[in-house]
Automatic annotation (TrEMBL):
It comes from Streptomyces chiangmaiensis. This is Acetone carboxylase.
């Protein structure tokens, strides 16, 4: 028996649901402009987390996890 596949979990506090969305964000006070931090979100928390980042002006992108993974990170602008 191998280890169970590690499915990515939602980043919301206390939530253990499988992540469906990737929220790409950047804090200009901490990060260079091209740097992307990512949070993961389930369907339920996507709006909550994106709003949290959005009001601070940090949110750059919201992408489905499957798309994020299939496109890779960073090498493709746009
Ligand atoms: Zn969640």
């Amino acid at each position: 028996m191998g280890p169970a596949p590690d499915s990515p979990m939602c980043s919301a506090k206390g939530c253990r649901a499988d992540a469906v969305w990737v929220l790409a964000w950047n804090n200009p006070k901490l990060h260079t402009p091209e740097r992307r931090k990512t949070w993961l979100a389930c369907e339920k928390h996507r709006e909550h987390l994106s709003k949290f980042l959005g009001v601070r002006g940090f949110l750059k992108d919201v992408v489905r996890l499957e798309d994020w993974e299939s496109h890779g990170t960073g090498s493709h602008a746009g």
